[in-house]
Design brief:
about 10% strand; mainly alpha
């Protein structure tokens, strides 16, 4: 279903996570399932990063290039606040947070 305005995430939105949202979680900025592109639903580097943060496992080998205006501490808060929410199904949460990450930075795989 096409949207009038595709999902996007601004640096101001990334920075808007409150201490309460960080402590108790939020789904406020999570894209709907319909807004998430198929490659995020199937899994990619961004969803691998989201999953590693969620499970506390080793992060994928990649270089993070933040978009202009995005601060690393704000992106960290935003990702963590959304990953700890109980609302959406796990698949939606990982795909959605991966998509959120892709809206705030570029990941460049590193050769291991």
């Amino acid at each position: 279903m096409p949207h009038d305005k595709p999902y996007s995430l601004t640096p101001e939105q990334v920075a808007s996570i409150t201490d309460v949202e960080l402590a108790f979680s939020t789904e406020r900025l999570l894209p709907t399932w319909e807004e998430i592109p198929e490659d995020f639903k199937r899994g990619n580097l961004y969803t691998s990063l989201a999953e590693a943060i969620f499970y506390g496992t080793e992060l994928p080998a990649c270089k993070v290039e933040l978009n202009d205006g995005v601060k690393p501490e704000h992106l960290n808060r935003c990702v963590r606040a959304h990953l700890q929410s109980f609302g959406p199904k796990h698949e939606h949460k990982i795909a959605g947070v991966g998509y959120m990450i892709s809206q705030a930075c570029r990941l460049h795989p590193e050769k291991t």
